[in-house]
Amino acid sequence: MRLSRLAPLVAATVAVAALWVAPLFLDPFAVNVLTRSMIYAVLAVTVDLLWGFMGILTFGQAAFFGVGAYAAAMMLGRFGGAPEWIAAALGVAVAASTLLGLAVGWLSFYHRSTALYASVISLVFPIVVTQLIYSGGELTGSSSGLVGFDVLPFEPAGFFRLAAMVLVAVTLAAWVFVRSDAGRALVAVRDNDARCAYLGLNPKRLQILMTTVLAGVAGLAGFMFANASGVVAPENAGFLFGTELVIWVALGGRGTLLGPVVGTVAIDYLAANLSGNLPFLWQLLLGATFVAVIILLPGGLAELASRVVGWLPSRRAEGFAPTLRARASLPASRDYADPLLKVSGLAKSYGSLTVLENIDLEVRPGELVSLVGPNGAGKTTLMRCLSDGTEPIKGEIAIDGSSTAGLTPNRIVALGIGRKFQVASVFESLTVADCLLLARASHDGLSPVGRAQALSLPQAAIDVMRMTGLDRMLASPVHLLSHGQKQALELSMVVALEPRMILLDEPTAGLTKAERTTIGTVLRTLTGELGIAAVLVEHDLDFVRQISSRIVVLHQGRLVLDGTVDEVVNSETVKTIYSGGGHD
């Protein structure tokens, strides 16, 4: 284990040593081209982190690169190349790109934005930046760019070594991060950002943070490019260059880090050697190779390498299993005098269609309230309103006296509410242990540099796992689990939050009789012994009878009955409602 942790550092040291002496054996043309290629590879790492690991297809890294390059060139051209002004140029290049990254991130990932919206922003941003450069006149050099500014006092070999060290440092940092617990959160956001929010995480904030930080890294690459080349041009910030970066990452193998680095350096170096002799044929060959790789090797050229070398970091789960450890769970308040959940006059409509109307409901600690009714009664809509305060509604929903109006799901989770969906909502690309670790992130945090050696869970969550065999499958990828195991995993994740109330939408759907009995036992323990409140949507009326404190009946968006199990089950109203159709 110790050797495996040191392996990346050893590999980075060897790479730096090899690249440090490489200029002694390369001709001047190769030194200059490879310097540029390695700077581009730094950009490729940022694209891979955003696209390969977070699932954000971005063309905007070229714009941040161009902004950094122009900021450095304008500073050095105006104030000269004294050490203090070089340091200032570096700071301005990184700061300008970082601030723009923050603005673009905020525009791209505001609440309810989609991945498509973010991609459109990344398409438009390089075009806007390029047009600003063209209209900048003497300040930006317009279409001619900027030349003749002072640069770092290095020979070509010095710039080569600087680019090599920065590339190795950025790649190593990215490698360590994506293999850490915090790095698992990137993949989780890509797989299922909604589940992240319902675990108390803030996926939008993480997306904005990554966009901002990686924009700063792109600005650093722009600073190096301006100094190494001595010229900056509008093309450095353009959409075409952004597209080339995406192609290089795809060809190298997105989600692997090393694949995009090697692919970018190789393709850019080959382009420099072949584009002069075969300008049109080279573009045709590159395009044909891109299409062939996407069709035959969706994982890029790194997919071939990974069959030989198994330590490439991957977007898929790694077989890492921490030690499972129970943590003490304090019983929730057993004071039944004040309701934990209070719904008053709730109404929800979609246009002219009224789904919920005049709903009044109270749930106290320790109660297990089952919500039943025919298809289309509004049960799932009610669950969504309870767990997402940004849903436009009439009326009021309060948790322990605090209104949920305007609160995003992660903020409602912070109030002590956990939600399980009708279809198991988990992270398909991660392991069982990773999913549970993310469920504990709002309590325990996530390390950005390492993996937790112990996974501390409430005893109730461990009970669910042991009863379903998940405790022996911590290192198993989630996409290999059965439907029932995924349902149990999601329930374990919700219980791991240590909520004061859990919202369960058909938790026994697709489970065997033994598994349903297990879930029933767990729910009775949570409510009866730990005093946790529960609202349960369930179609299995036998299951409902066995575990419920109360039953609430919805019909055509209205609450028509709220009473004890016997009162509701034997009610003529319920018999009339169900005689007219099925129930969900």
TrEMBL record:
CDD domains xrefs: TM_PBP1_LivM_like
Location(s), subcellular: Cell membrane
GO MF annotations in UniProt: ATP binding; ATP hydrolysis activity; branched-chain amino acid transmembrane transporter activity
Major place of residence: membrane
GO CC annotations, alphabetized: plasma membrane
InterPro entries found in the cross-reference section: AAA+_ATPase, ABC_AA/LPS_Transport, ABC_transp_permease, ABC_transporter-like_ATP-bd, ABC_transporter-like_CS, LivM-like, P-loop_NTPase
Matching PROSITE patterns: ABC_TRANSPORTER_1 (PS00211), ABC_TRANSPORTER_2 (PS50893)
Membrane topology per record: Multi-pass membrane protein
Keywords associated with the record: ATP-binding, Cell membrane, Membrane, Nucleotide-binding, Transmembrane, Transmembrane helix, Transport
Superkingdom field: Bacteria
Domain ABC transporter: 341-581
Residue spans crossing the bilayer: 6-26, 38-65, 85-109, 116-137, 157-178, 208-226, 246-271, 278-297
Family from the record: Belongs to the ABC transporter superfamily.
Name of the protein this chain belongs to: ATP-binding cassette domain-containing protein
Species assigned in the record: Methylobacterium planeticum
Lineage: Bacteria, Pseudomonadati, Pseudomonadota, Alphaproteobacteria, Hyphomicrobiales
